[in-house]
Give the backbone structure.
Amino acid sequence: MPSRREVVEIARSWIGTRFLHQGRTREVRSNGKLIGGIDCAGLIVVVGHESGLLDPSVDVPAYRRIPDGRTIREMLAKHAVEIPFRDLQPADIVAVKWEGSRFPHHLGIISDLPGGRLGMIHSYFDFRRVVESGFVEPWISRTVSAHTWPGLEGVPWVR
């Protein structure tokens, strides 16, 4: 069972990787050209794979550039456990909506920042890469749901 710290460190190892819609790989150079990248759902998937919390065959079915929210909700319902927002801890997953929407379109992994603050590691289109930012407004008020990984240290496997 991986610890929360291990999951956060795996997520941090992706910081700086460029954003690529439906990407699932780290960037590499091939014949001088930069290829690869990852999006927000891909980050959740690969961190789950690398930590052993998701079976290697698990992925999200193809989705539009701005998902309808159903894909994200279905993935989380099948592979994560919803928790109260107040119980968020590092390594947990948040589903976030864009302004004006009711449904989640973005995912992030909660991290720990200096001073006991919560952060969020996410592949963010606006910055074109994976970043770690403070889990502050507007992220907090746009969070639709919070989830944890079954099998994470201290979290029972449930199905």
